[in-house]
Amino acid sequence: MTEDKAAPAVVSQPDPRRSESDSRNLLMRVLAAAVLVPLAVAIAYAGGRLWIALVTLAAIGLFMEWLSVVGLGRAMRAIVPGAVALAIAGICLSIGRADAALIVLAVGFAVVVSAAPERRRWAAAGFLYVAMAQICAVLLRLDSEKGFVALMFVLLVVWVTDSGGYFAGRGIGGPKLWPRVSPKKTWAGAAGGLVASLAVAIAFAALGLGRALPLLLLAVALTIVSQLGDLFESAVKRRFGAKDSSHIIPGHGGLMDRLDGFVAAAVVAAIFGLLRGGADGVGRGLMVW
Questions:
Q1: pLDDT per residue over 179-196, tens digit each?
Q2: Using CA atoms, how far apart are residues 130 and 122, in angstroms rounded to an integer?
Q3: 8 A C-beta contact, residue 233 and residue 70
Q4: pTM, 2 dp
Q5: What whole-number distance in Å separates Cα of residue 116 and Cα of residue 99?
Q6: Cβ proximity of 272 and 282 under 8 Å
Q7: What CA–CA distance (Å, rounded) separates 88 from 190?
């Protein structure tokens, strides 16, 4: 009798093409970040009209990408008035007329909504999304004493949340955070982003830029909000079958893909700072306890 031999187990081998693609994508992400991060920090440090100009250009780009994602990318009747309203609002903010900026944005909102009746709710949501981002990002930097510190705290928390989540998620893996919305995000990645944001808070406290406990609590709130903003943007893209909002940033995708977390964190941070420090002291209200 011949002895039956068990069939050898089939071991799946990693796809070398996918591995090469992932490595190339990571390299592009790192190179793009190496250029864009110092530039953003330099403009944030300069503040004033230079920062407002950058924020306004980003808001216009975000608005155009949003309309493209929701199927209104060729609706010039909505794109043009929305972009013009954001541009004029930026000019108003640069001369210290936040009240006029709000009026302009309100008019722009009404025009955009009426110009896109077939997807009115999505057009309205998109314009509100970018208008709030524009106003709040400017308010965060407005305070001459603490504006730069407050803005850098928010930016760093968002950046390390994204980077910590990326590397922890890839290195540890495990259960998915919300697979129906974002299949690649894991609970390990969320935890990694949280730990990284706490490190930022500890560093700011060690440098004497704030008290440790309030900064830790603020970091927790902002990293959670940042990740929710990321998931919100992923949900919108999945709703309309879009992978990336655009390909304007090599290795990263579009502005929405990179700024989704910052938009959410900036809005929450600005509202909190506004309640504690007023319109001229948002940064101070956020950082001084």
A1: 888 877 888 889 999 999
A2: 12
A3: no
A4: 0.87
A5: 26
A6: no
A7: 38
- Is a pLDDT exceeding 90 seen at residue 11? no
State how far the alpha carbon of 118 is from the alpha carbons of 78, 85, 114, 142, in Å: 11, 21, 10, 38
Phi, psi of 177 (to 5 degrees): -75, -50
- Residue type, position 20, single letter: E
3-state SS assignment for residue 2: coil
Q: Answer yes or no: are the C-beta atoms of 227 and 165 closer than 8 Å.
A: yes
Q: Can you tell me which residue has the tokens 């930022």?
A: 200
DSSP codes of every residue in 81-100: HHHHHHHHHHHHHHTT-HHH
Cα separation values, 279 from 135, 141, 233, Å: 11, 11, 28
Q: What is the pLDDT of residues 239-262, one digit of tens each?
A: 988 876 667 766 557 788 889 999
Q: Report pLDDT digits (tens) over 64-116.
A: 999 999 999 889 999 999 999 999 999 999 999 999 999 999 999 999 999 98
Amino acid letter, 235? A
Q: Locate all alpha helices (DSSP H) within the chain, ordered by sequence.
A: 16-46, 48-69, 76-94, 98-115, 120-142, 147-172, 187-206, 212-239, 255-277, 282-287
Taking the C-alpha atoms of residue 21 and residue 14, their distance in angstroms, rounded to an integer, is 12
Name 178's bridge partners. Answer: 182
Sign of the dihedral through C-alpha 195, 201, 205, 207: positive
Distance CA 258, CA 245 (A): 10
136/10 Cα distance (integer angstroms): 55
pLDDT tens, position by position, 73-84: 889 999 999 999
Q: What does the domain layout of the chain look like in residue ranges?
A: 48-142, 144-289
* pLDDT of 16 above 70: no
d(CA 32, CA 1): 66
